[in-house]
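Holo model, glutamic acid. Inputs:
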Amino acid sequence: MSSTEPPAGEERFAAGDAQFVSTGALPDGRRIDELLDEALRRFRPEQAGVVADYIPALAAADPGLFGLSVAEAAGGRHSVGDALEPFSIQSISKAFVFALVCQELGSRRAAELVGVDNTGLPFDSVTAIELNDGSPMNPMVNAGALATTALVPGATSAAKWKAVQDGLSAFAGRPLHLDIPVYESEASTNLRNQSIARLLESYGRLAFDPLATTDVYTKQCSLAVTTEDLAVMGATLADGGVNPVTGRRVVDADVCQHVLAAMATSGLYERSGTWLYDIGLPGKSGVSGGILTIAPGKGGLATFSPPLDTAGNSVRGVLATTWLSRTLGLNLFASSDLHHSETP
Ligand code: GLU
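Output:
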């Protein structure tokens, strides 16, 4: 099935059909603090991975930085290590801009226009577009992210940028600002993304000017965040679209559900399958070293550590999230034998 076709039988489901949720609770706050401390202690010594340098400004990052934050859907916040260190959000922005576009166009229409299927190819693949008849494939790779940014409301690039900056700030619960050196560095080296935008345009799959779209996309990737910000942004997606710190609704619950599904399919580059197999949660990573993971109904877990594996995922971040998904009890696929226990 091509990613532009609706699933068979979609018309049989009405928007008003009852939706039940399937989520539990996090451990108490003191236990969350203990587990974050322990994750920091365990994985800080890890030395593997290489800091990204294809965007020149990212190469200067300190490889020793390591921060972890949890924001509970119930409002509690927990951080350890370098959780207040700012870094550019990079690809993690893709999930939130897709949420804003889903909110505007509806999750079904956004999926038809952008796609929600995995490419199995690198995030900046041109081959994936050619192999799939011009489809951007999904919002978490650059082609789909550029197609998504082009769909952000606004007739000019300034209006689209304002919608993105205001929208992502509402997810974070505070105004987010541009990291100007990172933006300028990427803007002067992003020929590949400009080419992807032009290729999409040639297929009639880009809804706005290619260079202006690439510029807004580069700005969205250059917004400075901390792990505390990312955790709150994630907790908003975990909380049916209401920011648990500000109490403000940012997007509808239906949007969160679909954005999390897209993150689960393709959020961790070519390792998305391995990630889901090991961690069992929707996540999104970025080349500056951030990873955001969402436990629906429970909260957001954000990690920051710049050295990356060969797929572009933070090495300490993957290790810490794997361990925390187990110890905090987050894996969506984990169950236990409650119904056939032998104890009376
Ligand atoms: N701005 C980066 C790019 O488009 C984001 C890449 C990423 O974080 O995966 O190359």
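The two ends are 49 Å apart (CA to CA). The chain has a mean pLDDT of 93.
Archived with the compound record.
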